[in-house]
Amino acid sequence: xxxxxxxxxxxxxxxxxxxxSALGSFLALDSVDILGDIARKHLNKVVFFVFNPALVASNxxxxxxxxxxxxxxFMPVNVFITFLIGSILGWILTKITxxxxxxxxxxxxACSAGNIGKMPIIIVPAMCKEEGxxxxxxxxxxxxxxxxxxxxxxxxxxxxxxxxYNIIRISSRDVVVExxxxxxxxxxxxxxxxxxxxLLPSADYTSITTVNQSSFSSRMQQWLTTSIDxxxxxxxxxxxxxxxxxxxxxxxxxPFRKFxxxxxxxxxxVEDSAYLVGEAAIxxxxxxxxxxxxxxxxxxxxxxxxxxxxxxxRYILLPLVGIFIVRGVVRAGxxxxxxxxxxxxxxxxxPPAMNIGTMTQLFGRxxxxxxxxxxxxxxxxxxxxxxxxxxxxxxVAS
Length: 398
Known about the structure:
The chain has 398 residues and is mostly helical. The protein has one domain: Na+/H+ antiporter like fold, CATH 1.20.1530.20. 77% of the residues lie in helices and 0% in strands. Helix 16 (338-346) packs antiparallel against helix 18.
């Protein structure tokens, strides 16, 4: 396949995303007010609780079996690597640009967490429909492509809400703890006070030990409760993650699969209905993306060198790392089909995750700054994703 053919094949899905995003921005204009703040909030809830779980569960259930699952073990590793390398590069960027303290977590999060769920779900099926696609039959490509993208979405959601959420939460705190006394003074006071206490009889030693153990047990229980709250397990077990679990259970357990999957299955109408609902996720998410980008036009006080640094990491450094890792493991002997290779490579080249914007709204810090980051990075994605997708297609087709 020629470079021009690959470039056209790669550019068509991006152009579709741009057109639908532009429509979303238009619908969010104050003069139109169809996708205003309130409407967007409710539509986001429908996508989060209904469309995404249905899409993830239905596609994984149809395409993932126990045998195919064994070939997907590298995807969790790959997703973890994208977050790890992105975090390291983001930390280096904060040392160079020195952003305000409450934005450090935002910068690291934008570099580490890419939109590895929604963007592949939008791009991969559109890529399968193009005439020059190297991924074979359209229906097979779409089915497996959506399954890979759905798994990517579930893995991304877990790391997003367990790792990035806590980075942004910690850096967004505006609590300063002041220590009024030096440690030595505190120790001296404690020693003096304790020396004034009378010595207790040895008979009371057991009761003291019991009290201390009880106190230790209470502190441990409190620490565990606090840790669980900080990890935000409700967010980790997001509907998309639960949908992925359901899809894996149905697809990998033979009795469930025979009962629900396939035209001859007794309850195939359930799976068909879930798939029908899930199909609404892709256009809806793209419309919301365009509407959210509109707020970035209002601007903020964020340094443009930070935006340039994030774009450089996400669109130059990470894709190069991705090529080195994915192609390296393939050359080392790991069997990955071309479509899975493409999805794995794409995970390194996508713009920052949209859910970070939700986190900034939750903590009340960095909303306007992240809107500007989204505006520029998603604007540049039109060029960057097209070029990298062309390169990835050439690599997996060669």
